[in-house]
Amino acid sequence: MQDLIDQGCAFPASAAAHSLHLERLAEQHRPRAMFIACSDARLVPSLLTAVRPGDLYELRTHRGVVPPYDAKKPTGESRTIAYAVDELGVADIVVCGHSDCDVVTAAMHDNRRVSGVTGCAEESVPLSEDVTAAGHWHALTQLDALSDCPCVAPRLADRSLRLHAWFQEPDTGATLAHHPRASTFLPL
Ligand SMILES: [Zn+2]
Q1: Could you report the per-residue pLDDT of 58-69, keeping only the tens digit for each?
Q2: What is the Å distance from ligand 1's center to 187 Cα?
Q3: pTM for the model
Q4: Residue 5 covered by a domain
Q5: Structural domain that includes position 32
Q6: What is the DSSP string of 20-75?
Q7: 132 CA → ligand 1 middle, Å
Q8: How many domains is the chain partitioned into structurally?
Q9: What distance in angstroms lies between residue 37's CA and the mean position of ligand 1's atoms?
C-alpha cells in the first residue's frame, strides 16, 4: 500500500513533469469518449488508449456488464451512461471485453449455459469450446444492452453517437475491434 501512497503524494510533481496542465481540468469536463470495461486489473483503458486526464470517461463494472435498462430501477451503470450521453455528449462509446475474463472462462470450463453472465436472466453464454469466441460474444451482448438504453437510441438515430466493441488481450497487448459488416473482430 505504501507505494500507492507515495505515488499519490508525488502525482502533482509527476504531472508537471509530463506537461499535464491539471489546472485546466477544473475548467471543464469534456471527455472525447466513454469506455466501458470489466474491472479486471489487467485491463487498463488509459494505458491502452494513451489518453490524458480528461479524455476518457470510464465505467468499470464486474464482468464489464451493461445491465438491462429498467426505468423503474435505474442502476448506477445506467445513470453513468445517461450522464455520459446526455450531459457530457460523448460522440463515441467503446465497450471493451478482454481475454481470460474470469467469468467467461469459468462458464466455458463448466461447459454449461450460465445465466447472469451478462446481467440478463434470459441471456447465457452459448455452449462452445472457444473461450475467445465466447468473450467476443459477451462484448457484443453488452453493446446490445447499451443500444437499448433510451438515452442512446436517439443519438444513434441522428448519428451523433457511435458504438464500438473492442476485445483486448492483456497477455499479448493486442486489441481487436468488431467489424459489423464482416461479423468478426479484427486487429485495430
Ligand atoms: Zn473480465
Answers
A1: 999 988 889 988
A2: 19
A3: 0.86
A4: no
A5: 28-187
A6: --HHHHTT----SEEEEEE--TT--HHHHHT--TTSEEEEEEGGG--PPP-TTS--
A7: 12
A8: 1
A9: 8
